Amino acid sequence: MRAYMNEFTRYCKTMFINRNFWTIQWLNLMYVVKYRLIIIGYSLAMSFLYVELTNSSSELFTKMQSEAIVSACVSFFILMRHLWLFISLGRLCLPNADQFTRAERWNNSFRQMLFVLLVTSSKYLKTELIFQNISVESIPIDMISNGISAAFFYLSLIFCIRQFWKRLDKQMILSDITSKESLEVDVCHENVHFANGWNEFVRVLETGITYKYSQTGNLFYMSPSAYAKDCDTKLERKVTVSLKYSLITGTLNRLTARMIITNGSVEV
Asked: Residue 21 above 60 pLDDT?
C-alpha cells in the first residue's frame, strides 16, 4: 500500500509540474465561464421581467403575483438543470456504446455536474437579489459588467481552443500507408503519436477514413474496417481524440497524398 501511495504521489507531482496539464485546465475554464455567463444572463432576464411586471401601466399583476411568476421561472431553471444532470447520469448506463460515445457521455455528465454546482452556489439566482431591482436603473452595475467580461472571456477561450486543436493537429504523427497494401488488413488501425509530450494527455478514441471522389467531389466516411473499391478517390484519415483530465473531445483530420483505391490494394 505504501509503495502504491508513493507511486501515486510521484505521478501527481510529475503531472502537476507538466505544462501541458495546465494548458488543458486553462481550456476547461471555458465551461466555467460559459455557464457563469448563462447564469448572469438569465438573472438579468428575470430582473428585466420583474421590472416590467411591477412597473406595467396595465397593472395586470400585483407585486406578489409578479414575485411568484419570477420565482417560478427561477425555480424551473434550477429544476431543469438538475433534471438534465440526472438524464446525463442515466445515459452512462445505456449499453452498446462505442468508445467515442462513452467518452462524450462521461464528459457531458461532468459538465452538467459543474453547471449544477455553479447554479446552486450563484448569488445571481437568489430571488432576494432580483426583487431588489424595482427599476432598470437599480439593476447592479457589477452584474452587467460581469456579464460583459464573461462574454468577452468566453469568446477569447473559444478562439484559444480552436488554435489549440490546430497546433495539436500539426503535432499528430501518423504512419504512412504502404503502396500495394492489401485492403484485407485494417490499414487505418495504426499508431497515432503526438509530439512535445502530448502522448500522455491525449486518448485516441477512433480512427477512420473519409473518401472523396475525384470526379464528383462527393465525400463519404467509412470506419477503418470498410473500404471503397473501384473508385478514384482522395483519402483523408480522421482521428477522434479526447484530452485526459479535460471535458473536451475533438476530431483531428490529416489529409494524405492522393491515392487510388483499386481491387484489393492501395496505390499511391
From this structure: yes
Whether the Cβ atoms of residue 247 and residue 28 lie closer than 8 Å to each other: yes
Nearest in space to 71 (alpha carbons), one of 19, 6, 126, 23: 126
Indicate the DSSP class of residue 214.
Answer: T
Measured between alpha carbons, how far is residue 234 from residues 80, 190, 220, 268 in Å?
Answer: 46, 19, 11, 10
Distance CA 209, CA 226 (A): 9
3-state secondary structure of 243: strand
Dist CA 14 CA 94 (whole Å)? 36
| DSSP label of 137 | G
Average pLDDT, the chain: 76
Query: Which triple of cell numbers denotes residue 6?
Result: 508513493
User: What is the number of other CB atoms lying within 10 angstroms of the CB of residue 247?
Assistant: 18
Q: Residue 133: is its pLDDT beyond 70?
A: yes
Provide the CA 54 distance to its chain's centre, in angstroms: 40
The DSSP element (H or E) to which 211 belongs, if any, is strand 202-213
Q: What is the spatial distance between Cα 201 and Cα 138, in angstroms, rounded to a whole number?
A: 48
Which residues are CB-neighbours of 217 under 8 A, at least 6 positions away? none
Q: Are 51 and 136 in contact (CB under 8 A)?
A: yes
Q: What's the pTM value of the predicted model, to 2 decimals?
A: 0.73
Q: Which residues contact 49 (CB under 8 A, 6 or more apart)?
A: 69, 70, 73
- DSSP conformational letter for 191: -
Torsion of CA 8, 11, 13, 16, to 10 degrees: -120
Torsion of CA 111, 12, 102, 165, to 10 degrees: 70
∠ at Cα 88 (111, 81), nearest 5°? 65
Residue (of 235, 233, 228) closest to 217 by Cα position: 233
